[in-house]
Structures are given as C-alpha cells and as structure tokens.
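Let's inspect a concrete specimen:
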Amino acid sequence: MGVLRVVQIVSRVLVAHPVWSRPAPCVSYRSFSAKPLAGESTALVYTTHGEPSQVIKLGTLQLPSLGDKSALVKMLAAPINPSDINMIQGTYAILPDLPAVGGNEGVGQVIEVGSKVKTVKVGDWVIPRDAGLGTWQTLVVLSADDLVTLPSDIPLLSAATLGVNPCTALRMLSDFEELKPGDTVIQNAANSGVGQAVIQIAAAKGVHTINVVRDRPDLSQLTDRLKVMGATHVIKEETLRRPEMKELFKFYPRPKLALNGVGGKSATELLRHLQSGGTMVTYGGMAKQPITVPVSALIFKDVKVRGFWVTQWKRNHGHNDKALCSMLDELCTLIRAGKLSPPACTEVSIKDFHKALDNAMKPYISTKQVLVM
C-alpha cells in the first residue's frame, strides 16, 4: 500500500497514565535535560471524514522538535473503540483538525523528555488523559502536562485499555447512586468494554448485576464468560419484556441504577425495571435511536435520567490530579487483585490495520481489536 507523507500534523495532546517501574501511581519525578530527537513516525492518518476502511491510510509523519516541556513517547499498544470510529466518521462530539491520526486511547513509553519536565521520566509508560491525541502511531511528541503515570505492575493490555472503559464504569457506579453490597444494577451492552468492567467492579463491591445482551449464535458461551467475570444474571434483550423479570426480582431488589449504552427500546425497558427514585445513566447509543421515557416512570416512580461522558469528567477534573489519581489507584488495585481484567483482545500489527478495522466494525465481535506498534 502506498505511503502517505504528512508534514507535521498539529493536533491536541492528550495522554493520561504513564506506567513506570515504581509501585505508586501519579508521582512526579524530576526530569533531566535531553537533546531533542528528530525522526519519523508511522501512523494511521485520515485527511477526510468517512468510513474508516476507506479513509484511513498508513502514513509517515515528520516529528516536531522536542520542546522544554514535551516528551517523546513510543506507543506500544492502542485499542480501537467505538469513539475512535465515530471520530473518523465525523459524528463524535469532538473532532481533531484534519489531517489527523486515529485513536483516543493507548499505552506508550517515554523515550525522551525536555529540560523543564518534572512529571514524567524516561521509561515511564503513558496513556491519554483526554480524547483526540491520535494514538495509532509509533512515535509522538506530547506535552508532559498531559501525561499521568501508572504503576508498571499491571499488564500491558490492562494499561492500554484503562483510560476509557474502566474509568467510565467506575464513575457511573460511584457518582449517581450510593450502591451498597446486595444492591442491584441493570445494564445493556453488557458484553461491551464498559459492560465487562461494570460487571467486575460491581462484583468486587458486592453489587448484583443484571446484564442484557443481544441474542447471538454463541450466547451460551458469552453467558458463561460474563458469569465467570462476576455477572449475577445474563439475559437477552427480549427477556426484559417478559414475565420472568418479576420472578427475578423476588430474589434480588429492583435496580437502583441502570446503565444504558444502547438507547431506543432497550433503554426504555431498563427504565421500567428501576426501583422508585432510581437513576438511568446513558453513556452510549449503539442503536442510534432516541430514548423514550414513559411519563409514568417520571411521575409515579420519580426516576432520574442522566448522561455521562468520561472525557467531560476528565476535563472537569483537569486541575484536580487527586481525583484522577484516586480513580486510577482504585482501578489498579482491582487489577492487581485479579478482580479487573481487560476485555478479551485481539492484537494486530499496525501494518495490518485494515483487518483490525474490519473486525472492529462487525456485529457480535467478542474481542477488542488492539493495534500493536
């Protein structure tokens, strides 16, 4: 395939949690002066919005000089998330200037730092703090202020997939209802990256989960896999509208919290099963259909309908490293304890990106595509 040369793409710098060889995350280190390294980066570039398989090209970028407050990062692994696809299609809430590099999440290693950098050091692993960085590339120069460190005693794939889905899951389980052991959460899109993180984090807290998935040929295997993660119940979408739901709530309390990543009828059915005063939080809309809220749910059950976007949460807490570090510490503690695993991943070389993009766009895919550099 032809190589597209793009001279100096200027884009937002968004990196989050570097991983380093010390056990305590989010600790600042004194950097040393380093001679800027010139070079090129292999990247997945798009110059126009459209279907990823048609507009993404393997390109070569000329790296800018390393500034006093910048870091040169070698990307190691970067997943393909729905938000990445939406951004390339031009339908996401934030869009980088074109031409742009794809990818909002990933883990890399710091290779060089500027003379005034005090927050990261050579050898640290890093992942994006915010969206829009362009993680699908081999090397990138970033502002050190946008880098946050993680401990290096977690698996590489856990680090590469930590900044979006697990953070979304933890915030939704923490910020909208006060959940206690024995409480119930209901969610659709239970097989998504967020859904799998919700199952595991809730199980670690002693919270029951009712997990809704679409019917599929391998439903039995999927059900078994989610239950191994800690799912209390796994049901099909159509079961939400059947009488057996009443039987289920004879053994478990009605949910305080519903998590909606689908929209449409699925979201409406989640709302119907909430207990009085409960909350439904929407973080995605895979069905691309609006949510219909029954009037009776609002009047007689006083349910709350909220939305959540982890990118906005990070921006709201951009000057509060304590909040971000506390969240990452909690997630890393669960990872070390074996209570939070990354979703099943398929690692694909960046040179075989077409294969990864095609698989990421298919329905019922049970593994997350991860580009390795």
User: Anything to note?
Assistant: The domain at 4-162+342-372 is CATH 3.90.180.10 (Quinone Oxidoreductase; Chain A, domain 1). The longest helix spans residues 321-336.
